[in-house]
Design brief:
This protein has 5 helices and no strands. The protein has one domain. The chain is mainly α. The longest helix is centred in the last third of the chain and has 61 residues.
């Protein structure tokens, strides 16, 4: 999480920290694909000045929207509390309302930002896919190099063994 007034340097630093933290090399056995896509998507938007300005504007709208929904929820809850005969229903509805509160949807006004975010998501997916592919390829290359060097070491050890046996035989 970075502040809304973060500089490009702070954004890049935060991006690098998160990318390292969630990189497949650091999380073997854990599928970090979704998290890496989110990190890349956020960086692509926040690193572009115009996209960031549009994002900030929409984020402020989202915060107001979220506060409005919370206020509506509080008002509904207060109105229900006035009616004491429905206490049992209130408890059940409160549980339902809490889960519904998390489900509210927000619609972007800025169509350009919406398209940019969709493109950033697609690009992030491609970036992570390429990274995972490169990781797999480098693992295969690493294994191949290890295997090749291991065979060379075995051959060299065998040659030394044969030389030692020949020298023992000659010196007897």
């Amino acid at each position: 999480m970075i502040s809304q007034s973060a500089s490009r340097v702070e954004i890049k630093s935060a991006y690098k920290k998160q990318a390292i933290k969630w990189h497949p090399d650091k999380n073997q056995g854990v599928d970090t694909t979704q998290r890496m896509q989110e990190i890349n998507e956020a960086y692509l938007i926040l690193n572009d000045d115009e996209a960031r300005t549009r994002y900030d504007r929409e984020y402020l709208r989202f915060k107001k929207f979220k506060e409005q929904k919370k206020e509506e929820f509080k008002q509904q809850k207060t109105e229900r509390k006035k009616d004491e005969s429905q206490q049992k229903e209130q408890r059940q509805e409160a549980k339902t309302e809490k889960s519904k509160e998390k489900e509210f949807s927000f619609q972007f006004d800025d169509e350009i930002l919406k398209r940019w975010m969709e493109n950033a998501r697609k690009q992030a997916i491609r970036n992570v896919h390429e990274m995972v592919t490169e990781f797999k390829d480098s693992s295969l290359i690493g294994f191949g190099t290890f295997f090749s060097n291991a065979i060379k070491a075995i051959i060299i050890a065998f040659i030394f063994f044969v030389i030692v046996i020949i020298l023992k035989y000659i010196t007897q």
